Fold this protein.
Amino acid sequence: LSSIDFLKYKIPLFEKIVKDYNFEQGDRVLMTFGEAECRRYALRELKEPSRSDLTDKDLEGLLAPYIYAAHTAISLLVERGYTPIVWGGHAASWVDPKDQVNMPTFGTPELRNRLSRIWHESMHKYSARNNFHFFSMIPLTLKRDYTCDTNYLADEVHIKFEAVAGYFLSFLELNELLS
């Protein structure tokens, strides 16, 4: 699910979850956009999604609609009285698209990591401008080759909650968000 898809199709589902789980004004909500945008959506429009000649400016242009949609979704949370925690994403997986069987993947790991870095930086700046809390998995999950450490993955691309729960709880405690 991309940030754009969330805005188009999932707002009613989000509203149902909020109602079913008795969310209250001021409750904190972490929206985990970014992984699919960098692995799949931003690159799928390219005829050659593994091109090495793409500049960071080109990649920023590919991500722009998804970043805008993520900002819009976060703004909706604020309008409804919730406190957003902005997600900085995580490093891309090592998986080559030709080897990927379970998750649609485009581009080389290097290219996807460049997209992940741009996403991360954009969300970090957005958080700072709006005085939102910013949570990043990058320091925990990034290996020396700039791919995601497989110890933190549930499958080829998704973070394994059990492996990062302590890190997230530490973030919440450090920022006094566990009230």
